């Protein structure tokens, strides 16, 4: 048995449950005598109550005569409840709901169970959320990705994602870091709010059908473009609708108050939640001081902070943040829950390279005054996400953590006032890594809390089997059935229907073509097709009309195998029956291919960058078999460690030159001589004496002076080399650090992201969040 304080419970806010029902809010929690979880910012609490005492929500409703707290009715009488469904009792004296268990779960995650696939794709996921998106009574999964966000519709069986294909929420492609679900427009279904990094946060309004986002166009919450890391929905001003709280890194957190209409943020201006600017990684909302409104806890790289709602319609006006404690760890995730069962919300903190910590609420208006954090255990992990829920069905709140390198772990509450004393972590997924987000919920409808883990290499599902040791013997599987290790992606209209298709170059599996379906959900229901069945270690893909017939062909750069050409057949199934051709018999360690007309004869030639090999040139013969009997030429005698090649007119003479990005040695420039043998007699020139481990090169006019500059993506600090505008374009040039960031950059791209007329830089990192650098003026970086 345990006590759940009404005032301290985010689900119930400042009203008792009976008061909620009589106060015109039945639609938020009750629909046709079955539960429909419409408050996603409080999803954990909804699922917890549903799993532990569902009759509280779905049994007969006892209607309060006087809404709100304190309530005065005596709910002890059995005539206000159905004893067959619940033993719940509202205590007038304690102003609390006493919950008793009618059946204890057994057999949670027993040996022999395996996780189930969700969907058919692998995305770089930063956040996952679960809720009933299509109104059919089961829990669906929404994944917030670097790229297009995806919805996975539960099929309603005990194998809830068998055969399920992910659906794009929209065609929007953002750097999404956080997802929140809730009914923001008050129409009875769950909408999606996404928190984006250095982009406006977005709202997607559910259309109320079985295809909840078909035809839906996202809307910016406001024009703010901030470093949003965490986003949460909650009624912050007590007017009955869901507001948005955005947790930002190195910028003030922001509050967006719902206007109460069907267009809930039209005309809304965000308000700062204090002027603090911390490196925030996570937010949690809850009534930590028991005054009936929602407060904000920020998990920071440094001291974590508490912001106390002032209870007005401008809830953080004049509010100053307070340190939770003097601890200054690198916190990645925070969660609130009554882990010691004393009726108030405690704080669990997930830290990076430090023990996770528990801060017990002291039950006063200054809830963490003099609170000393205690280590959950002595485990030191690379924690990315923490979540609270009753995983073993014993009536108290347990802890699940997701880590970067050590999988997921479960810490079972011991049921005392010192809830994790003597507790040892249990492995949920010891072999999994790169977990960035976890969420708990009953996805298979068996009454036990399951785990969904968001990863940057395939999301995972772990089905609780209902035992007291809920994850023993469980092996999670990627939430996907198509797992190809793509090293290179190229897009272009390969089937001639005026939309962009995708080609993936894979490692030791067949390269794949994904044809755009032409709808707002560009790849919804699309199954990749093998270009051919042969499998290589393809490191680079390029698209171009190599045979001059008006459609895009594929050039694949392979490691330790001949590079290959796949000729488009000009039909709607562009590579059906196509047999790849070796471009030459060379079997080099190819890392990069680039195509362009280097000899000025009107067709596309091929430049190949090899690791521990010479850069080679293959001149198109201008026929329908463009490399037949063509012999590749070494461009020079250089024998570099080339990882990336790019073509551009670097000296302004009207022809394409070659820039080679090399690893651990200087980058090299090869100036086209302007003849039909464009690099005959050409000697490469160093682009400065820098020697970095470079993986990617991009060319563009970064400083707006009319010539092509070089950007290098490195293991370490990325560098910019500014063309001097002469025929010796890098003579006397010194490389410039793009920023002080030092990461393992694998790919870079240039484009005008903010439409201000200059080129911005996008950086894809292996071991760190991808980054965007926006040029503030025509003086580049």
From TrEMBL:
Record keywords: Glycoprotein, Repeat, Signal
Domain of life where this protein originates: Bacteria
Keyword Ribosomal protein attached: no
KW Repeat (keyword) present: yes
SUPFAM superfamilies named in the record: Integrin alpha N-terminal domain
InterPro entries in the cross-refs: FG-GAP (IPR013517), Int_alpha_beta-p (IPR013519), Integrin_alpha_N (IPR028994)
Pfam families named among the record's database cross-references: FG-GAP (PF01839), FG-GAP_3 (PF13517)
PANTHER family: ATP_GTP-BINDING PROTEIN, SENSOR KINASE-RELATED
Name of the protein in its database record: FG-GAP repeat protein
Species this chain originates from: Desulfatibacillum aliphaticivorans
Organism lineage string: Bacteria, Pseudomonadati, Thermodesulfobacteriota, Desulfobacteria, Desulfobacterales
């Amino acid at each position: 048995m345990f006590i759940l304080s009404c005032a301290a419970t985010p689900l119930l806010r400042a009203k008792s449950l009976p008061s909620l029902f009589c106060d015109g809010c039945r639609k938020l929690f009750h629909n046709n005598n079955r539960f429909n979880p419409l408050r996603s910012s409080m999803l954990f609490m909804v699922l917890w109550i549903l799993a532990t005492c569902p009759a509280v929500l779905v049994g007969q409703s006892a209607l309060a005569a006087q809404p709100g707290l304190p309530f005065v009715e005596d709910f002890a009488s059995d005539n206000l409840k159905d004893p067959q469904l619940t033993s719940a009792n509202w205590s007038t004296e304690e102003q609390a709901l006493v919950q008793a268990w009618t059946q204890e779960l057994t057999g949670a995650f027993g040996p022999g169970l395996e996780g189930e696939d969700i969907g058919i794709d692998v995305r770089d996921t930063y956040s996952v959320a679960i809720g009933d998106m299509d109104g059919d009574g089961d829990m669906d999964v929404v994944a917030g990705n670097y790229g297009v966000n995806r919805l996975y519709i539960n099929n309603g069986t005990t194998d809830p994602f068998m055969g399920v294909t992910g659906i794009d929420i929209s065609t929007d492609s953002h750097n999404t870091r956080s997802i929140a679900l809730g009914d923001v427009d008050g129409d009875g279904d769950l909408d999606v709010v996404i928190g984006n990094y250095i982009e406006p946060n977005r709202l997607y309004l559910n259309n109320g059908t079985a295809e909840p986002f078909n035809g839906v166009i996202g809307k910016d919450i406001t024009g703010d473009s901030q470093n949003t890391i965490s986003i949460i929905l909650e009624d912050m001003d007590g007017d009955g609708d869901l507001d948005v709280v955005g947790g930002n890194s190195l910028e003030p957190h922001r509050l967006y108050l719902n206007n109460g209409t069907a267009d809930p943020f039209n005309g809304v201006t965000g308000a700062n939640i204090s002027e603090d600017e911390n490196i925030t990684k996570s937010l949690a909302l809850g009534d930590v001081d028991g005054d009936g409104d929602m407060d904000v806890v920020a998990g920071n790289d440094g001291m974590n902070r508490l912001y106390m709602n002032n209870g007005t319609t401008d809830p953080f006006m004049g509010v100053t943040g307070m340190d939770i404690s003097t601890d200054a760890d690198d916190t990645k995730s925070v969660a609130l829950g009554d882990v010691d069962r004393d009726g108030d919300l405690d704080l669990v903190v997930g830290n990076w390279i430090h023990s996770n910590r528990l801060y017990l609420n002291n039950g006063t208006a200054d809830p963490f005054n003099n609170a000393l954090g205690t280590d959950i255990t002595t485990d030191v992990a690379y924690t990315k996400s923490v979540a609270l829920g009753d995983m073993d069905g014993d009536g108290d709140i347990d802890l699940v953590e997701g880590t970067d390198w050590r999988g997921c772990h479960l810490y079972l509450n011991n049921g005392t006032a010192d809830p994790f004393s003597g507790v040892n972590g249990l492995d949920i997924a010891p072999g999994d890594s790169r977990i960035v987000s976890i969420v708990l919920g009953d996805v298979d409808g068996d009454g036990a809390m399951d785990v969904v883990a968001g990863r940057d290499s395939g999301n995972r599902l772990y089905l609780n089997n209902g035992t007291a040791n809920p994850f023993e013997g469980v092996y999670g599987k990627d939430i996907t059935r198509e797992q190809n290790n793509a090293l290179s992606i190229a897009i272009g209209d390969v089937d001639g229907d005026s939309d962009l298709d995708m080609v993936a170059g894979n490692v030791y599996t067949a390269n794949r073509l994904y044809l755009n379906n032409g709808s707002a959900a560009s790849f919804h229901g699309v199954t990749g097709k093998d270009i051919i069945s042969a499998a290589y270690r393809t490191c680079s893909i390029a698209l171009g009309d190599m045979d001059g017939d008006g459609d895009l062909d594929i050039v694949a750069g392979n490691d330790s195998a001949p590079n290959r050409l796949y000729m488009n057949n000009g039909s709607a199934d562009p590579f059906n029956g196509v047999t790849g051709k070796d471009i030459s018999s060379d079997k080099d360690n190819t890392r990069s291919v680039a195509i362009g007309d280097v000899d000025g004869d009107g067709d596309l030639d091929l430049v190949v960058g090899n690791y521990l090999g010479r850069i080679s040139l293959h001149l198109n013969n201008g026929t329908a078999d463009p490399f037949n009997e063509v012999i590749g030429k070494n461009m020079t005698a250089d024998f570099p460690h080339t990882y990336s090649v790019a073509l551009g007119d670097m000296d302004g003479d009207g022809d394409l030159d070659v820039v080679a990005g090399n690893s651990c040695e200087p980058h090299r420039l090869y100036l086209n001589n302007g003849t039909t043998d464009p690099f005959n007699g050409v000697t490469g020139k160093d682009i400065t004496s820098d020697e970095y481990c470079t993986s990617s090169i991009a060319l563009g006019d970064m400083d707006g002076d009319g010539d092509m500059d070089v950007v290098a993506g490195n293991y370490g600090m990325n560098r910019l080399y500014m063309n001097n505008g002469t025929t010796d374009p890098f003579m006397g040039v010194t490389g410039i650090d793009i920023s002080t960031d030092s990461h393992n950059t694998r790919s870079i791209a240039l484009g005008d992201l903010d439409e201000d007329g200059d080129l911005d830089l996008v950086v894809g990192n292996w071991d760190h969040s991808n980054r965007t650098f926006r040029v503030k003026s025509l003086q580049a970086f």
